[in-house]
Amino acid sequence: MTGVLEGFALIGAIIAVGYLLGRLGILGDAAGGVLSRLAFFVGSPALLYVTLSGAEVGTLVDTRSLVSYGTALAMILAYLLTARLLMRRPAGETVIGGLCAGYVNAGNLGIPIAVYALGGAEAVAPTMIFQLTILAPASFVVLDLLEKRGQGMTLRNALTPLLNPTLMASAAGVVSAVAHWQPPEVVLAPIQTLGGLAVPAMLLAFGISLRGSPMPGRSDMRSQLVLAVVLKSFVQPALAWGVGLAVGLSGPTLLAAVVIAALPTAQNVFTYAMRYDRGVVLARESVLVTTILSVPVVLLTAAVLA
Predict the structure, then answer these.
(1) What residue ranges are annotated as transmembrane (predicted)?
(2) Which end of the chain is more exposed for a tag (fewer CB within 10 A), N or C?
């Protein structure tokens, strides 16, 4: 219980500091955008490389991990189809909404929860790697192409998705992991230090964005918010439970699949929304609401399946 609550308390404390900074105007009006860009272009790629370069590639394809990947993709697809075909929402916003529905907070919240509920942080590593190497880069390719749409297919525009810092860091990290190679300490140490600013910068930027924001659900994106929250907080863990049972998971492996699916939308999604200026309100409110709802859902899941 303590580990779960500590994870939520950590996130809440840093977000609160960000809110106070924004409320008092200490960092200026542009602080939220600057911190988001800092996290996107510097902190996240560095953290991503450090995480992936030391990963065990073999853990990415076990049954429990495949259940986690499948349920995440199912939620994203369900959101994309509903928002695009039925709600007729813009493409860029729909991509961000899809991430809100399926991209879980496997890092700064998932790790302490995994330690408490699953007995070790290694359970969330495959999901984190899948999101950082597949979901995020694929989304960036689409968002980059949408950003360049109407400008003509120049060489620069064609190369833009490939030059995304997250995609480049993912590729470098996977190559290092497969080759079992690490850069010398004089190179790795600065990368590790820069990676350490990613999560605090994301959370502070998120807190700053809450200044002056209405309560969730009061914007013109209420329907999209409800859709993303229902899929993320309720349908995804229920689907993980059902699919896990169907493929023979039980005990700790079933618990791991359901708990990971019950994690809230990651703050990364808000950073991505800020970077591309698509679905910012939707991302902010989804992160906030799903984080609040995940407390009872995760605790109930752990109590029932532990």
Answers:
(1) 6-26, 38-55, 67-87, 94-118, 124-146, 158-179, 191-213, 225-247, 253-274, 286-305
(2) N
114 within 8 A of 123, measured Cβ to Cβ: yes
Question: With 80 as the cut, is the pLDDT of residue 253 above it?
Answer: yes
> How far is residue 282's CA from residue 100's CA, in Å, rounded to a whole number?
8
CB atoms within 10 A of CB 182: 13
Confidence of residue 290 (pLDDT cuts 50, 70, 90): very high
Q: What radius of gyration do the chain's Cα atoms show?
A: 19
Going by C-beta distance under 8 Å and a sequence separation of 6 or more, which residues neighbour residue 166?
A: 40, 44, 45, 48, 132, 136, 137, 140
**Which runs of consecutive H residues, i.e. helices, occur in the chain?**
2-24, 31-38, 44-53, 63-81, 91-102, 110-117, 125-130, 136-148, 155-159, 165-179, 185-195, 198-209, 222-230, 236-246, 251-262, 267-276, 280-305
d(CA 26, CA 11): 21
- Domain segments of the chain as ranges: 2-305
pTM listed for this prediction: 0.79
151-160, 206-215, 223-232, 250-259: lowest mean pLDDT where?
151-160
Name the residue among 128, 74, 118, 75 with its Cα closest to residue 298: 118
Neighbouring CB atoms inside 10 A of 147's CB total: 18
93-125 residue pLDDT tens: 999 999 999 999 887 677 667 756 666 656 777
Question: Tokens 């942080």, residue?
Answer: 121
Q: Is the per-residue pLDDT at 153 higher than 50? A: no
Assign domain 2-305 one CATH number from 1.25.40.10, 1.20.1530.20, 3.30.540.10, 3.90.110.10. Answer: 1.20.1530.20
Sign of CA dihedral 85, 86, 89, 95: negative
